[in-house]
Structure of Acetate kinase:
Amino acid sequence: MSPTPSRVLVLNSGSSSVKYQLLDMRGGDRLAVGLVERIGEETARLKHTPVGGESREWSGSVPDHDAALKALAAELAKDGLGLDSPELAAIGHRVVHGGKRFTEPTVVDDAVLAEIERLIPVAPLHNPANLTGIRTARTLRPDLPQVAVFDTAFHTTMPESAARYAIDVETADAHRIRRYGFHGTSHAYVSRETARLLGKAPEDVNVIVLHLGNGASASAVRGGRCVDTSMGLTPLEGLVMGTRSGDMDPAVIFHLMRVGGMSADEIDTLLNKRSGLIGLCGDNDMREIRRRVDAGDERARLAFDIYIHRLKKYIGAYYAVLGRVDAVAFTAGVGENAAPVREAAVAGLEGLGLAVDGGLNAVRGDGARLVSPADARVAVAVVPTDEEMEIATQTYALVEKER
């Protein structure tokens, strides 16, 4: 009897790129990783790395996502890992917005596709690209389960008191206006890994997760369930980010329309692409900002201070929401690598039991680790995120359950 298929291909389809990983869930092994970028251009690039082998890279015309998926499938086939393999159990897709309906990973059918499409108005930059990836994968392997894993799903456990905006209820419901949250696969993975690092079950741990990359979000996780998160209807709300403003008085928008003569599209571009760190100091790379701070650059210093001030406010707010905090976990590009950000974020919070050990915090490492003093009341952890593994894990669990 042939072994049960155990491989999962994870696809993260963006507007002009497809990131992918192939994993064997029998042992949790990564078999291949890759990226197709600049889709639609003559200078598209594909980088493919079989684990244990040498990377391959090429440039050329990739007119659309269909061509991109066929190109990555061809690269996988060169390593004996093709999409026609009987060992492939499913394809897992990252989908940014699942609204209120999708609270867990879901096998895709025509009705699911239609609902994801219906949510495009609340995720116009992401859901169309996610849909394209799913549709293309379905044509390549129509016999294979396609599973959608939603960024918003982990946050659907928020109580209404956290998810509702204080606006007219009928208007909000008519236009599906509420706080959905994003980066959910990362928050789910990191909160669970933080509990494991502490030697406890997720249901016994309260964690504040800080996902700090170019996009940034915080979550309050009580016993493995999200009870609050910083992003809202869109990924614009919350923390100061690389190019996004985060929290802001909504009347600023009306002011820019009435006094600044700006259109809705111009304001959308301002708040999403020309704000945050890049708007404050012209850089959105924390490494460069820290270099400028150390060189005495006052604009960079102000940008860093605003970033930390907002971060510290959310730590304090989520401490109050949770009542008891066992750990604060830093993850993603900035959270995992920027020791000055971790140090500054908890500085002055010793009364809440938060502190970092300077020596531990300065050490770079690949795995999950504690950077707080041994006697700290609240653990401060660095936990590398692995959204692809989380998507693969959820996808495989669903397929096995329905097998």
